[in-house]
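Everyone, carefully examine this protein record:
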Amino acid sequence: MSLTSEEVNFLIFRYLQESGFLHSAFTFGHESLITRSAASSLSREVAPGALITFLQKGLLYVEAETHLQEDGADVQCTEPFSLLTPHVCKSKSKAKKKAEKEKARKTKKKDDATEMDVAPDTKVEAKQQPLKLAMFKPDEITTLENTSEVTCCAFNAPQTHLAAAGGAIARLWELGALTKSVSSTVPTNQSILLDHGPNCKEVTHLSWNRAGTTLTTGGYDGVVRLWSTAGRLVKELTEHVTPIFAVKWNKDDSMLVSVSIDKSAVVWNAVTGQAIQRCLHHTAPLLDVDWRTERSFATCSVDTTIQVWEVGSAKPVHSFVGHSNEVNSVLWDPAANLLASGSDDCTAKIWSMASSSPLFDLQGHSAGIYCIRWSPTGVGSRNPHLPLLLATASNDSTIRLWEVANGQCINILTGMWKEVYTLSFSPDAMFLASGAFNGLMCVWSMKDGSAVKAYRHRDENDVVFNVSWSPNGDKIAAGFRSLAAVVFDVKPGSLDALPTAP
């Protein structure tokens, strides 16, 4: 039997990915060089949950070894084994005696107690119930084949192209030129391959400029690349030396900002490709960034803080401190007045530039929050007559909808059973698309919080890494671990009054 550190590192890397700790997995993979090891080539042969399976089998072996006596008999022990604490055997007779004492104690306590009225709990609670779903029909689905998992995908503004990336591969599809096979599958030869070169082991992020004419990708090699819709590499921006987590365009397409593991944000001139400013203040890797105006933006970090920057200012102009664990995401509302943040401390918070303390501390999730999305409603949106909502997706398998006016949770969307990783509102704010770590892409009605339609590309071991609603609202794109991007047709009326599956 052989056991190498590469194999152990790879199992840990896979466990972090499967458990939803993607930032930790990314950092661990970078430091251990796991993506360059021979073990990474066996990824498809390693079953999901392999590390847990080996640990469970190891515990069973240790249990058998501990309880096996010289005469071949087993010690009748009732104490379970633990990975963390020393094992102390307890016999059945002692356990039985303890149970009888506990039963007597509870009986006496019940006899001594007096009855009292208890007010009903009026909180919105998460109760996981199996979803009864209408599935997308075959003629509503177009599968875009890829040669690696698809971790990010996005439509451009004119909705002429879809970009998708994952692993070391990024591709462009011209939507009007797609030819589907009988199985509604579009082969890779109908896409434009964006060649990132041999040094880029993973494309970590992509985003379109607002005009939809230029695509940016962030790489594991620390390079920001700009591409035309024809797939031509326009510029390479080289200031970071470690993997990039996010790249965003400002509101007039004149600048870009990128954030990296190197603890910095870099502002770029989108025309010349020159670095305008390097923002250094965070004490740990940066995880996300979002522009507030043409010249100001917010960054968040593993150091648990949020910093607001103005282009040209060497120091942050505002700091938000309140989270107790790493902050995964930040996002300004449509009016750019409120900033939402989601953290591994299980809370989301809503902030205002008028204060350093959060306006609302949104508590209720029981695990970390990775994705947050504002509804396209309220002041500054295309639906100003509708109230502003915030959606939060958590590793506790739920989505919560919060009313921003009072910070109250108004609905909990349940039934995914696995970590919810990605969200996208429809442009009219009537629906919300979600993706989970069981391969389920689901569309929810904002009228009543019901699940109205769903799709699973392979099986429950698949993962939906990204969902993206098209600008005019008639399509949804989803990226799957199972080597595909899938485009769904959601024409007006197709999501209303759907029958549910039995």
User: Anything to note?
Assistant: The two ends are 49 Å apart (CA to CA). Residues 92-112 form the longest helix (21 residues).
